[in-house]
Structure formats: structure tokens, C-alpha cells
Amino acid sequence: MGFAPEASPALVLNADFRPLSYFPLSVWSWQETIKAVFLGRVNVVSEYERTVHSPRWEMKLPSVISLKKYAPMERSPAFTRFNVFLRDRFMCQYCGTPHPTNDLTFDHLIPRSKGGRTTWQNVVTACSCCNLVKGNRMPHEVGMFPSQRPFRPSSFQLQDIGRAFPPNYLHESWRDYLYWDTELDPG
Fold first, then answer.
1. What is the pTM of this model?
2. Which residues pair with 148 in a beta bridge?
3. 63 and 11, same structural domain?
4. Which residues contact residue 88 at a Cβ distance below 8 angstroms, ignoring those fewer than 6 apart?
């Protein structure tokens, strides 16, 4: 009975044992992981039961690895469409409805035609419908105001928001490393 090694990604932890990224979750393919193990760049923290081998060696596929050298987090995240959507929790800032990314757009609070710039402080996530209604007008002209004032998030804030969006795949060996620093319910 065979297995698909591509179904065995490794969770990548920083040297402090926190994930490099929560959203998108920091995972490496089994090939990248094995290469990093052989080059001595990572420590194997946990393994799958599955093995890979060559004529001279055999090893279990790592399921969790940690970097040997700490990789500092960027202080200010790049201004990208994805990061704006993440900051706004993939929710239209006008109607408050969450949407898949392909249904979301940018909206300039102050339209570009009226001198608005494409910056963290002037762009919000909007659904196509709300963006069409607001159009090329100022918020007060149409009575449409974002649910939160747009802001420049820190990398820490984006990582914190990202933890609320669980990845599609979670191996049981990852759970201890993804949620160890979340606040527990005193219930």
C-alpha cells in the first residue's frame, strides 16, 4: 500500500517554537523539509509514521520542524491585497458580511479621482455589491462608512488575526505548536 508524500507537509516553527506564519500557515513540502534536515538548517520536532528511503538510508518524514536560527518577523507587513483582506478579516467593511477572496475588492474611502491614495489608511475590503453602490463617491455622500477605521497593521496583528482562520489541513502533531499561546477559556 503506497502513500502520497505530497500529503505530508511539515509545519515550520521558528527557533522559539512559534509558527513562522499562522496565515497562510507556514508549511514546507516533504522535499524542502528533507533538504533542510540534510543541510542541518532545522531540527526535527515530530515525525509522521511514513518513511522515505534511498538505497543507502531511510528516514521518517518530519511533520514538525524548527529552524536552528531565529528568523526575525518583519515589523511592517507588505501592503498587498491579501494582507488588507486579512486585516479586515475577509469581511466587507460596509455590510459586515464575510466573503471568499474572489468576491472581495479594494475600496478607496477617498476615491483616487478625488485625490485618495492607495494606502493602508485609505483602503478597505468591500464586497462587489457594496463597492458598486459606493462607486466613485465619498462615504458621507452615500452614507456608507466602514465598520472599522482602516489602519496600518503590524506583522504581529496580522498573525494574531490569522490564527482565527484555521488551515484546511491540520496534522495532530501540529496542534500543540499552533495553539499553545492562545488564551484558555476559564469555564
1. 0.66
2. none
3. yes
4. 124, 125, 148
Residue 65 belongs to a domain: yes
Backbone angles phi, psi at 43, to 5 degrees: -105, 140
CA-CA distance, 111 to 38, in Å (whole number)?
53
Does residue 135 belong to any structural domain of this protein? Answer: yes
Cβ-based neighbours of 147, under 8 Å, separated by 6 or more: 91, 93, 94, 96
What is the mean pLDDT of the segment spanning 160-181? 70
Among residues of the chain, what percentage have pLDDT more than 70?
A: 87
Work out the number of other CB atoms within 10 angstroms of the CB of residue 110. Answer: 14
* Residue 153 located in a structural domain: no
Residue 127 structural domain? 91-142
Q: For 9-54, what is each residue's pLDDT tens digit?
A: 999 999 988 888 776 778 899 999 999 999 999 999 999 999 988 8
Q: Which residues of 38-69 are buried (b: 16+ CB within 10 A; e: fewer)?
A: eeeebbbbbbbeeebeeeeeeeebbbbbbbee
Number of structural domains found in the chain: 2
Domain harbouring 98, CATH code: 1.10.30.50
Average model confidence (pLDDT) across the chain = 86
